[in-house]
Each structure stands twice: as structure tokens, then as C-alpha cells.
């Protein structure tokens, strides 16, 4: 059944492996009879009418929300702000005249998000919950729901729910673009399938990430992840995964910001994982890598076909530049998994954490 580990030692590893199948399932769930990816017409109308989208989430879902901001802005040309739910509630930004709210929550039960939902409902705004759990509180209380169809996620550290959330956000962005008459010169279902295949290739090469953990994280107590733009967002998730399950202190940083402070922490042997999937920032990230290397950092470079150099440690299969967050997170999830495994950590139930947090 869906919720048995089968031959897997941990739910987390099983859930990492399920991701390509989940993405293919998301594609099929949102396809109409003609094979076109479509979103419910009422949600489409809200997206079209909105002058600004407010994405509200926590933890890993917040990182999916950051990826969603990039997708909706780049594909559908609608301004998006992504906020941490607990911050939004007490430090509410000045809202645009026609806001539309998107809540992202694997469980659909997170209290911090519910606080925002209650608040914006009182103001008369409509909202959409993107969740993995049909009938959950946030699904019932928001105006609309889109399901992520990832199946039950048991490991506390979220993996397949995150990539499913990003896939649904991509479908929403493509649908909104079409509704706004924006010409998209790619076939969304096809590009998402290419991403699912690329995820599968990474999953089939776990030994590469296992080796990286031996080489870079064997007895380190900290680790930095650097990237720019959407890769920076992926780095935040990479750092969170590592912190959550291996307890290694990890931070994700924008490459350009290192020199304004954080580079002070780089010393001989400090592990730095650099991510480069966007051609636009190619030269900048390569020069950031030189800067940290010159100060002794032990750099693991993750890049993507097309802009890779042969000495890079991990090369992701080519996917559309909009969809790289689906693929770049796979090595991060696996690095966290193996780091936790070698440290003997309780991977599926890390200390101090709960799968669903129903207190504010
Ligand atoms: C908890 C979990 C995280 C999760 C966050 C948001 O803190 O430990 O893994 O990302 O809640 O959960 P949600 O169900 O709202 O996505």
C-alpha cells in the first residue's frame, strides 16, 4: 500500500524515489481530454483578475512558494509576494487593490497559515489552498483548493510534497498565462514530463550524492549552499533539509551576498555546495566559487547540462530553465539523507520536529 515502507529503510528515501511518478500523476490529474493542462475556470478567473498574488506558507512549503513566485512572475507576468505565514500575520504588508491569496500546505493543517486565512477572509478576500490532503482545514476554509496528489507523506522532512507543489504552481502559471493571452512557446505537459525524467535520472544515480557526503560532509559541522535567483531559493530548501535531518548547521545564501558578510565564515575545509541552473548567472556563480575556494572552501559544484563544465561534481539533465527547481532539489534531498544516515540520525522522525504544526 501507499503508506508502507516496503523494501525501503526509511520513508524519506521511499518518498524521494516516488517523485518522478508523483509529477507524472500531477500532469495526468490536470490534463483535460485534449491533453492540455488546465485549472478550474473559477480559479483561472481569480488569477486573471488579480493585480498581485500573495503566497503564504511555512517551512518547505514556503520554499515551494518562492519557486512559485518565480514561475508565476516569469510565465504569467503577475506580481507575486511570497510570505512566511507567521510573519505575515503580525507584519502584514500593504495589500494591492485586487489581491489573490494562495496558501501552500502539505498537511492543510498548519495553524500559522490558518491565522492568515481567517484574517484575509474577514477582509473579504478569496483564496486558494494548494494541499496534499483533501478535506483538510485549509482546504475546507479557503474558497478553492488544488490538490498536489503526492500520496501520504510520512517522513517529517518534506520531499515529494514539495516537488508536487512546484508542479501544481507551474501548471497554474501556464494556465494563467494562457488566460491572459500570453504566448508560451513550449508545451507545458511535455516540459513537465522532461523534468520528471530528469528527476528519475538523478534518483537512479544516488551513489554520486553518497560519495559527495563522504567527501564533503564527513566530519563537518556546517555547510553553505549558494545560488542566485531561483537557485538561491533551491539552496534555502537544500539547507533546511540538511539541518532538519542531519543537524548540520547549514545556510542557503544568494551568491552575490556572500561578500557582504558570510564569507567571513569560510575557512580551510568549509563545505560549500554551489548550484547553477540558470545561464543568466553562470559567470557570477563561477566567480563566487573562485572567491570561496581562494579562502579554503571545499566546493561541490552542481550544474546543469548546457552550462556545465566537465569538472562539475553533479550535472543535472537538461530541463526548461523555468522548471529546474523540480530537479535541483533531488541531489539536495539525497545529500541530506546520506548525511543523516552516516550520522545515525532518526531520519523519518528528527528531534524537535512535527509533521504538522497545529499551534501558532
Ligand atoms: C512543519 C514540518 C515541515 C513543513 C512545515 C509546513 O514544520 O516539520 O516539514 O514544511 O510544517 O507544513 P505544511 O503541512 O503546512 O506544508
UniProtKB/TrEMBL annotation:
Catalytic activity, reaction form: D-fructose 6-phosphate + L-glutamine = D-glucosamine 6-phosphate + L-glutamate
Keywords: Aminotransferase, Cytoplasm, Glutamine amidotransferase, Repeat, Transferase
Enzyme class: transferase
Boundaries of every SIS domain copy: 43-182, 212-350
Active site: residue positions: 355
MF GO annotations: glutamine-fructose-6-phosphate transaminase (isomerizing) activity
Location of the protein in the cell: Cytoplasm
Keyword Zinc appears in the UniProt entry: no
Function text: Catalyzes the first step in hexosamine metabolism, converting fructose-6P into glucosamine-6P using glutamine as a nitrogen source.
Assembly mode: Homodimer.
Protein name: Glutamine--fructose-6-phosphate aminotransferase [isomerizing]
Lineage per the UniProt record: Bacteria, Bacillati, Bacillota, Bacilli, Bacillales
Section covered of the full-length record: 241 to 600 of 600
